[in-house]
Amino acid sequence: MVTVEEVQKAQRVTREKSMIKKHYMHLTEEILKENPKIMALSLDARQDMVVVEVPKLGKEAATKAIKE
Fold first, then answer.
1. How far apart are CA 17 and CA 55, in angstroms?
2. CA pair distance 68, 63, nearest whole angstrom
3. What is the Cα–Cα distance from 31 to 55, expressed in whole angstroms?
């Protein structure tokens, strides 16, 4: 199990090494229909979606990296 401190450290290291200043999100009609609150001012709806989607993206990235 990963601790909160380890996650925060990884995020900090990633941010410091990255030259990315802005982050963009690709939204499709399907995503918007499944998550109608995503465009609300509340961060909770977006974070709820991220909790589900980030592991999927990680799995895809790992699978792609292993194939290469």
1. 22
2. 9
3. 16
